[in-house]
Amino acid sequence: MNGRFWTGFGIGIGVFGIALTIFLWLIGAFSPPELPKAHITALHFSGEEITDFQQSVKAPRILTVVGQSLDVPSEWTVWVCVFPLEAQHYYPQREPVSNNGIWQLEDVCLGSEEIAGTSKTFIISLVVADADATKQLYKYAQYIFTGMEQLPNGAVICDEVLASRSE
Question: Are strands 57-59 and 48-50 parallel, antiparallel or unpaired?
Fold first, then answer.
């Protein structure tokens, strides 16, 4: 076979590869996977229900977080984490919430009793975690109480609410 054949063959393969790449891109084969959906829908405390999170929420030290999770893979978990702005650490709460449907987590703590009477600001984060991150979050929630400087790889924040201690 001569050089013309190989040149034509190479051009044909190149054109086919470009066309295939464009086709796959158009049908979404190269899009990043869609993240699961999880949202905080309300905070409950002292007989109140807060559902408007446009402003920082004034809340007591102990509250209930309500939310909804959709399309979260069964091997993933959804966690409520508290992030005090002054401490700059994540504090995963004691257990994950439901990874599909409406859920509520009672006794979420915004800091310790020692800070009562002071103005502290917290971010209440809703975190979706893959299997590896879930293991680390479970370990932390059961044995370590010093806070995590960062969330483990495989954990993604899906929603956040800014809250200030009212007591």
Answer: unpaired
